[in-house]
Amino acid sequence: MSNNRYEDCVKYMQAQLPMYHRVGAAAYKTDITNTVLLCEHFGNPQNKLQCIHIAGTNGKTSSSHFMASILQKAGYKVGLYTSPHLVDFRERIIVDGKMIDKDYVADFVENNKAVFEKIRPSFFEMTFVLAIKYFVDMKVDYAVIEVGLGGRLDSTNVITPLVSMITNIGFDHTQFLGNTLPAIAFEKAGIIKKNVPAVIGETQPETTMVYVKKAFQEDAPLIFADQVFRISDVVQTMDKLSFKAVSGLTDEVYDVESALVGHYEIKNITSVLATVEVLSKQVPVSKQAVLDGLKSSILRGRWDIIGRNPLIVCDTGHNAEGLAETLEMISFARYRKLHIIFGAVSDKKMDKTISLFPKDATYYFCRPDIPRGMDVDVLTGWFAKAGISGKAFESCMDALQAAKTAASPDDMIYVGGSTFVVADILSALR
């Protein structure tokens, strides 16, 4: 097919119908009516899939990849839907590790423009329905579906899964989800369905009763993963994470190895292990498939080492909780001097975030190449208020080049602050 045909269709989705991750609040929908209408037009593909539904503030994409990898290793054909993408739109829609075909995307857009113009769905609504239609046409055995934003009012909430999983709760997208942890948890808990088991990854005092109440209302079995598993023998390097997890549900002992590193992945993996143990009552999954799936799962942008001498690491952690975990990982690294390339989006509250960062690093500020990117002078001003100075750059790649020029072989360069900073760097390197 003509590559231009595919690219034109992706541009149509992005331009005609708002894309939240690019433009922010203008694209946020407060109900799932459009998704329901689109699903009806395509014969309700969501009702023809067996799904695992994953929500949370941080870790839901890693968890989704872990889950898909495990099910693949168990011998199933697996669809995986995540967002946002870093380099290629098709990263959002994958079957057995392979991105959706460009022809399929183009045909979906070109053959259905009339219904799109009538319903006026958002970019995310279109993309989600494209994904579930594709999964049905590809005859997947199971589909792992990551929530886009929140849960209760998210487009993905039209599915009724085999199991629901919520990784954790933090302060992100507060303009939509609420300014307190219980309010945000209420939105995430919206994915808990009638008689469908729910796994909560992290016990938090402020949110526990929100889940308990919702599970009681839905008569849904409820499990807190961090209360189920005992963790020991943790070994963390720049390239590998390993630990032992003992299940309080089954007494199973898992000797975990993961190429996705960072102490935060321990939480994600234990959440996935608990979800697999619940799911295994309906779906046969061997222990070896679990271990092989965890070991082989790869995800760009999560503690992504893109250079050595100096060590260059990209990480998409972008809220206070995610950045705190990333900075903890940096503290484990060995380096002479730390260089930080940082960019953000314009609607991000920076005060809590900036307080986490070391003042003795060298900073390179940049704006990600999206309409929603924070002006680099505004960003520099935020850091200046906290007593941190740095140089401003027109692009993320300019900032990286400057850091590489200034760094010695035994230094470390960290690239982050926003998913879109990492996306700009990975796109440029590709």
Kindly list the characteristics that best describe this protein.
alpha/beta, 6-stranded mixed beta sheet, 40% helix
Describe the model.
- By secondary structure, this protein is an alpha/beta fold.
- It is 40% helix and 17% strand.
- The chain has helices spanning 3-16, 20-23, 33-41, 60-73, 102-110, 113-119, 123-137, 174-177, 181-188, 208-218, 225-228, 264-279, 287-296, 320-332, 351-354, 376-385, 396-406, 419-429; strands at residues 51-55, 78-81, 93-95, 98-99, 142-146, 163-166, 198-200, 222-224, 229-236, 241-247, 253-258, 304-307, 311-314, 338-342, 362-365, 390-392, 412-416.
- The strands form three sheets. Strands 4-3-2-5-1-6-7-8 form an eight-stranded mixed β-sheet, with helices on both faces.
- Helix 4 (60-73) packs across helix 12 (264-279).
- The two termini are 22 Å apart.
Tally of DSSP β-strands: 17
Percentage of residues in helical conformation: 40-55%
The averaged pLDDT comes out at 90
Helix-strand makeup class: alpha/beta
Helical run tally: 18
Adjacency order of strands in the biggest sheet: 4-3-2-5-1-6-7-8
Q: Would you identify the regions where 5 or more consecutive residues have pLDDT less than 50?
A: 19-28
Can you lay out the helices and strands and say which pair or pack?
Layout: H1 3-16, H2 20-23, H3 33-41, E1 51-55, H4 60-73, E2 78-81, E3 93-95, E4 98-99, H5 102-110, H6 113-119, H7 123-137, E5 142-146, E6 163-166, H8 174-177, H9 181-188, E7 198-200, H10 208-218, E8 222-224, H11 225-228, E9 229-236, E10 241-247, E11 253-258, H12 264-279, H13 287-296, E12 304-307, E13 311-314, H14 320-332, E14 338-342, H15 351-354, E15 362-365, H16 376-385, E16 390-392, H17 396-406, E17 412-416, H18 419-429
Parallel strand pairs: 1-5, 1-6, 2-5, 6-7, 7-8, 13-17, 14-15, 14-17, 15-16
Antiparallel strand pairs: 2-3, 3-4, 9-10, 10-11, 12-13
Helix pairs in contact: 1-5, 3-7, 4-12, 4-13
